[in-house]
Amino acid sequence: MSGEFIGSGDPAYEAKVLMISVAARMAGMHPQTLRQYDRLGLVQPGRAAGGGRRYSVRDVVLLREVQRLSQDDGINLAGVKRIIGLERLLEQAQQRVARLEAELDAAYRRVAELESLARFPGRDLVPTNRTSTALVVWRPRRMPDR
């Protein structure tokens, strides 16, 4: 990695390639702690073909956060698991909101584009008389009997 920063948008951030000994060293923990966190569901490493655990840089960041919450803030592991789960839900919700906002912006742009093409710019796509309360009923013409 030649000293370059790996950000959360980088695929290398998510790649499950670190052996447990390397991930433990990077997180400043004993490998047995990582095994316990895996059993508790706090961190879900990938598995190598032989069954060994493989961690990503994202997992190491999460391991450090688990350690900070439990040691510095005094939160028990059940509480840490709940916090991590809620943070994941929040992240998913924020991503969904961002997608929906982008879709809404695109829809507004499309409406503006269609309005600019309309015969009456700045008005409804179909001109209406808003002061009228008349009801118009359309009946198709009857075809003459043959």
Automatic annotation (TrEMBL):
Instruction: Supply the alphabetized keyword list.
Output: Coiled coil, DNA-binding, Stress response
Q: Molecular function terms in GO for this entry? A: DNA binding; DNA-binding transcription factor activity
Give the source species. Answer: Micromonospora jinlongensis
| Coiled-coil region(s) | 83-117
**Which protein, by its recorded name, is this?**
MerR family transcriptional regulator/heat shock protein HspR
| Positions of the HTH merR-type domain | 17-86
Family matches, as PANTHER family: HTH-TYPE TRANSCRIPTIONAL REGULATOR YFMP, REDOX-CYCLING DRUG-SENSING TRANSCRIPTIONAL ACTIVATOR SOXR
- One Pfam short name: MerR_1
